[in-house]
Amino acid sequence: MYPKPDRFHRKYPGAEGFRPGGPATVGDSKSVDNKGLWRFGPERALIDFFLVLYYIHNMNAKFCLVVLLMALVSFPLLTVDLDGTVVLRSSLNSIAIEYAGAEGGEEMTDTLNYITMGVSFSTDITESLKVGIGAGYSLKKYTGPLYFEQLPLSLMIEDQSFNSMYFSLLGDYRFFYVQNFSFNLSAEVNYFKLFEINRELSFPVVSGEGTVQNSFLTGTLDLLIKFDQVEGLTIFAGPELHLLSGRFKALETLEDLSGEESVTFRQDRFFALLAGVQVEVLGLFEVKVEAKFLSHFSIRGGVIYEF
User: Fold this and answer.
1) Apex CA 247: angle with CA 241 and CA 248, to 5°?
2) If you ran DSSP here, which 8-state letter would residue 32 be given?
3) What pLDDT score was predicted for residue 61?
4) What pLDDT, in 10s, does the model give residues 210-220?
5) pTM (2 decimals)?
6) Is the pLDDT at 53 greater than 60, yes or no?
7) In angstroms, what CA-CA distances link 3 with 7, 126, 182, 232?
8) How distant is the alpha carbon of residue 241 from its chain centre?
9) How would CATH label the architecture of 83-306?
């Protein structure tokens, strides 16, 4: 919905010049100082940023999500004049993929099912351009089976889960607007962090260890038509270009023998249709629901808060 009204000023007329979480007004004994008990501010956001990097480095996904949420909560309370949008979002996805061996062997098909839960922050660069970042946790499952036959001892994975953090880059550009219609070009890139499973291999004659690693990257480009004639309600639909590329890597060590094999995969189809609705709730936040089909099936939902 462009342009967005200032909900705080709409709810509290006459509050011009006051920004929630902003510096206290001189002479106003009831104003709240951000540097009090909670100590929100630019220094807090900077500390949270480095904590996020620390936990990412140590692969502690749960703590990383908690700290990221704390960092995003800090943004609305910064003492600087920063406008932005925080979205708590989740999705359910199912994509048909094709495997190809490292040596260009025969392609095999599979289904990748995954759930994502995360949070994003975006800000307005211009009146028409918005960019953002996001992160979250993903639960992924490949139905399989997938065989690794170039190792000292062949391995197979089937109905295997690979759960990991993911990180996002977001962009939205409104390039045309007429009456109650707007035309937007939206892009999103998601990197699903490397995750590995280690298994001990024990046989009567030999023993060793096997490791299977997985990561992938997705990218979407949407051309959306948005209709917002009814206040607080936006309906949108349009085509989507959806790209997915990933890799499995298996490593195996048996006594004095060792080997590794990589299998890449990509999605089977690339074009999808997207449709959804965004509804304002009580003038405080918005709820967004959308569905995608054809190249893959996806249902996404989010709670949107603008400040």
Assistant:
1) 145
2) P
3) 52
4) 899 999 999 99
5) 0.72
6) no
7) 12, 12, 11, 12
8) 17
9) Beta Barrel (2.40)
Crossing angle for the helix pair 61-74 and 42-57, to the nearest 10 degrees: 170
Q: What is the CA radius of gyration of the chain?
A: 24
Contacts of 158 (CB under 8 A, 6+ apart): 143, 144, 145, 146
Q: Find all residues with CB under 8 Å of 168, minimum gap 6, and list them.
A: 118, 120, 132, 133, 134, 135, 136, 188, 189, 190, 191
Torsion angle, CA of 225/228/234/240, rounded to 10 degrees?
A: 0
Count of residues in the chain: 307
Instruction: Give the residue extent of every domain in the chain.
Output: 20-80, 83-306
**φ, ψ for residue 45 (rounded to 5)?**
-60, -40
CA–CA distance, 256 with 249 (Å, rounded to integer):
20
* CB-based burial, 88-118: b 16+ in 10 Å, e otherwise: bbebebebebebebeeeeeebebebebebeb
What is the overall mean pLDDT for the chain?
A: 77
Task: Give bridge partners of residue 131 from the DSSP assignment.
Answer: 123, 171
pLDDT at 13: 42
- Judged on CB neighbours under 10 Å (0-12, 13-18, 19+), 79 is middle
Pairwise CA distance, residues 12 & 284, whole Å:
12
What's the rounded Cα separation, in Å, for the pair 95 and 266? 10
Which of the four pLDDT bands, split at 50, 70 and 90, describes residue 38? Answer: very low
Instruction: Please say whether the beta carbons of 130 and 122 come within 8 A.
Output: yes
> Amino acid identity of 207?
S
